[in-house]
Amino acid sequence: MLQSHQLLEALQIQKFSLKQQYDVAFDFMEGFIIREEDYSIDGILTPFAIEEFLSRSKLNELHDLLLNAEEAVSEPCTQS
After folding, report:
1. CB-facing half-sphere around the CA of 17: CA atoms within 13 A
2. Which end of the chain, N or C, is surrounded by fewer C-beta atoms within 10 Å?
3. For residues 8 and 30, what is the distance between their CA atoms, to the nearest angstrom?
């Protein structure tokens, strides 16, 4: 069985080979939310993130984020 580093190395070799053969660039992050501020777990849910989840029909994930945001708002703030 391949170890994770062996798998990554094999994928890199395959990516390089395909890039050379077809002269194309690969973007493995295409389609992901890549702005850090839109993909946080601190309870803040941005309009961009909501639109992204809705456009990709990721309703369960959006529901979970909304619940987390609601919990973050309802938790009392503690100061030391």
Report:
1. 6
2. C
3. 19
**Per-residue pLDDT tens over the stretch 19-66:** 888 877 777 666 665 566 666 666 677 888 888 888 888 899 888 888
3-state DSSP assignment of residue 10: helix
75 secondary structure, DSSP code: S
Task: Please check the confidence at residue 14 and state whether its pLDDT lies above 80.
Answer: yes
pTM score = 0.43
Q: What is the DSSP string of 13-74?
A: HHHHHHHHHH-----TTTTS---GGGS-SSS---HHHHHHHHHTT-HHHHHHHHHHHHHHHH
- How far apart, in whole angstroms, are the C-alpha atoms of residue 51 and residue 48? 5
Say what the pLDDT of residue 35 is.
67
